[in-house]
Specification:
By secondary structure, the protein is of the alpha/beta class. The protein is 42% helix and 11% strand. Strands 1-8-2-7-6-3-5-4 form an eight-stranded mixed beta sheet, with helices on both faces. Strands 9-14-13-10-12-11 form a six-stranded parallel beta sheet, sandwiched between helices. A two-stranded antiparallel ribbon has the order 15-16.
């Protein structure tokens, strides 16, 4: 979706002089053959002086949208980024491309800060990467009045919105900072922003009739899955099974620092041949930087991290992202899962869902605004919003709809999913079971739904899912006798079904919004089940059940139905096709392996991550096409003039060495 306003409130500050051919500049400066979708249009608007809000999925090439214009504008480009641990890599990569770039963050010592300040006062022209909290530092504040950037870029712009999943107070000052800088043309970039968050970004930054570009949120190569686990031991076994079946890099997200340390320790013992690093905000900066560098530079490495690790991570061979605990929002999940498959090859994103993990997120919600002087009504609104988003991520974990489609629907992306390989679609579930009018609810399914709802209603919100299932199946035990459930009209109503199947069906009711779980007042970790207003209406026959429950009664001739509660840890997953890497013949594979070893040596010499030299997909093309000279190598996508000058001879020599 692209929205282009007809007018601007103020005249744009366009690039002086004749405009070079953009595609030629892309090839000569960045070594890329083609623009990715929407990049050229965004870049053109930035060059024309428009304010732009750019929402692109992870891996779609957002950074080029400000780096490219910066190479053509005669002046300073300020890039605001929270990614302190990655700034040095980004600056080094730009310098390797022959571009001017410097940084200012807390990693600089006093002498380095003075040197950067001197360059800025002398009229530095290029990209300045700066952490948002630096704007409040005395040393930098004195420079603000003197800086008049040609472009102001705000990366990870969702951090400015209190309705976003990663709100950061230091971002809230950026609108005022922009004014102090003379309100330069501005581009705000993010991978995760709903309509509300996009509107908040525009308002907070004071963007002038911005062009809003939303390229879509679909990542077709990501394979979304959710596994339902009951205990931490079961969760650990599932995690190890996934890691042992995947030889590429992996990231495991945990909700707390304690969980990071425990899981990292377990993996170091269980997988001694793999590099395992832990990462959380409680570590000091040198340790975090060291852990990140080990992960980025080591094949098959595993990072165990909190959400402090993620934004800007670009390790192309990450084949697996596991959420050991559920995140707080679908936005956070989308961004963190998006660390996988940055090279365009298939990758898996697996959530290990245990209901009790919700209590950790609820603890975080209760802490929102603690100790601040914010308006209590505003804080309560933020907490309500956070609770609603938590319910949504739980619904995502339990859904029997296509997971990719659910993500697109959440972000307001009207794209239709095709050829999905998420766990629901692989089981033959519904790509769009809930499309209005397309699925007819049978009388059998309607009756079954109302029987289930009646059972929930009879217990009056006082018992959990297991007890509701026991009552409906006619179980005879101490609990059913003590509460005299045998006398209820719904007792044994579903005795033809197993208790496990009724539990699964009750979870389906919650997924479809007819019922919910909550903690009783003053009680934690013992959730009870109750009907929602929609569930009451369906139970009373005032409206039909949702189309997503059409399969609840099973198919004819199917006595067990299809109400399973997701995929278990033992479920066999079909192998992932890794494209042409697996189709290489032996000679080509040997060339590719030699190229990778040479790239690793070059990376060590320059003390940069290997991907800054070139990605695996570029090495694959070199291995397959076997260019005979540097001119031929430069025609390969990803090998521009600067990379040819710096690395071409070394790669060409090893390519033709048997």
């Amino acid at each position: 979706m692209t929205f282009r306003p007809d007018t601007l409130l103020t005249p744009p500050a366009a690039v002086d002089g004749p405009m070079p051919d953009l595609l030629e500049h892309l090839r000569d400066t960045f070594g890329l053959e083609e623009f990715r979708p929407a990049q050229r249009e965004v870049i053109q608007d930035v060059l024309d002086g428009r304010d732009v809000l750019c929402v692109m999925p992870t891996g779609a090439g957002k950074s080029l949208c400000y780096q490219f214009p910066a190479t053509l504008r005669d002046g300073l480009t300020i890039v605001v980024s929270p990614l302190i641990s990655l700034m040095a890599d980004q600056v080094q990569q730009l310098r390797d491309e022959g571009l001017s770039a410097i940084l200012w963050n807390s990693s600089l010592d006093a002498d380095q800060r003075r040197d950067v300040a001197r360059q800025l006062r002398d009229g530095f022209k290029g990209l300045l990467y700066v952490a948002p909290e630096r704007f409040a530092a005395v040393g930098f504040q004195s420079l603000l009045e003197t800086l008049r950037p040609a472009l102001f870029a705000v990366d990870e712009a969702h951090c400015i919105s209190q309705w976003g999943h990663d709100f950061r107070p230091e971002y809230a000052q950026l609108g005022e900072i922009r004014q102090k800088l003379g309100s330069p043309p501005t581009i705000a970039l993010t991978a995760t922003a709903t309509d509300d968050v996009r509107a908040d970004i525009v308002r907070q930054l004071g963007l002038r009739d911005p062009t809003v570009v939303v390229t879509g949120f679909d990542r077709p190569t990501l394979i979304y899955e959710a596994r339902h686990v009951s205990t931490n031991d079961e969760k650990r076994r599932a995690m190890l099974e996934l890691l042992r079946g995947e030889s590429g890099g992996a990231i495991i997200y945990c909700a707390t620092r304690k969980a990071v340390e425990e899981v990292a320790g377990d993996l170091q013992s269980a997988l001694p041949k793999r590099v395992v690093v832990g990462y959380h905000a409680g570590m000091n900066l040198p340790d975090r930087t060291s852990a990140q560098e080990r992960f980025m530079q080591t094949p098959q490495a595993i990072a165990v991290a909190t959400n402090a690790f993620g934004m800007g991570i670009n390790k192309p061979d990450t084949r697996l992202v596991i959420h050991y605990n559920i995140p707080g929002t679908l936005e956070a999940y989308y961004q963190e899962a998006g660390r996988a498959g940055r090279d365009g090859q298939p990758a898996r994103c697996v959530m290990l869902f245990a209901y009790h993990d919700r209590y950790t997120q609820e603890f975080f919600i209760d802490k929102i605004g603690e100790g601040s002087a914010a308006d209590p009504r505003q804080l309560e609104a933020r907490k309500r919003d956070a609770r609603d988003k938590l319910e949504l991520i739980i619904r995502y974990a339990r859904t029997h709809r296509c997971r990719r489609q659910m993500i697109l629907d959440y972000f307001g992306d009207d794209g239709a999913v095709a050829d999905c390989r998420c766990d629901v679609c692989r089981k033959g579930g519904g790509l769009d079971l809930e499309a209005a009018g397309r699925v007819e609810i049978s009388p059998e399914a309607t009756l079954l739904v109302r029987q289930l709802l009646s059972g929930v209603a009879r217990l009056n919100g006082k018992f959990g899912v297991g007890t509701v299932a026991e009552m409906l199946t006619g179980a005879s035990n101490e609990r059913t006798m003590r509460w005299q459930m045998e006398s209820m009209p719904t007792y044994g109503l579903l005795k033809a079904h197993t208790g496990k199947r009724v539990v699964a069906m009750l979870h389906r009711l919650m997924e479809s919004g007819l019922a919910r779980q909550r903690d009783p007042d003053g009680v934690k970790f013992r959730p009870v089940m109750e009907l929602t207003p929609a569930g009451v209406a369906v139970m009373r026959g005032q409206q039909p059940p949702p189309a997503a429950l059409a399969d609840l009664a099973g198919r004819k001739g199917d006595r067990t139905g299809s109400a399973g509660a997701g995929t278990g840890p033992g479920r066999r997953i079909e192998p992932i096709d890794e494209g042409d890497l697996q189709t290489m013949d032996e000679a080509t594979q040997n060339r590719f392996d030699r190229l990778r070893r040479t790239r690793a040596e070059l990376a060590r010499e320059k003390q940069i991550p290997a991907y800054c030299i070139c990605h695996d997909r570029t090495l694959r093309q070199i291995a397959v096409q076997m260019p005979v000279d540097l001119d031929a190598m430069e025609r390969i996508n990803g090998m521009g003039p600067i990379k040819i000058r710096n690395y071409g001879d070394a790669l060409l020599q090893v390519l033709h060495t048997s």
